[in-house]
Amino acid sequence: MKRDHDNATYTLEIERMGNQDMSELLRQSVIDYRQYHLRDLEDNRGSEGGEVETLRQKADEAWDTLKAVFHDQNDLTQQLFQDADLSTDDLIEIVFDWKNQIPWPAEFDTGVAVRTAEDEDACASALRDLLAEWMWPFIKVTRSVPKLSFCNLTDIKI
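Above: the chain's sequence. Below: its structure in token form.
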């Protein structure tokens, strides 16, 4: 919402997940990825094709999330995530270590970053400057006041 003390035409608010929610998203991503890729093929012969397809879709989404967040991690490989000798719990700990190294901009210390701008172009520029590509899986809500028409950026829930 536009705050009383904001003199600019536009106010942009970006709310991120809390640490617990981020950890849960990453934990579930590891589980979903491995559940499909390390499933026992013998046990799944009688499984419905739809069940396997659902597992595959979850695995694809999980991998997309992990790649988006940790694209700069050289150790992020499908080989690592498909290593049956590495326990899922140990892999989750590796991912949590990576998460703890993420340098969030100070504006997100309270969980909500606020930027103001005079026009839509400046607002779009502020959004690009503030949000790195790796942040998108962790963004809960983006609001603008007044509502912006560009890129459907009106109360997007991610």
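Residues 10-17+111-157 form one domain.
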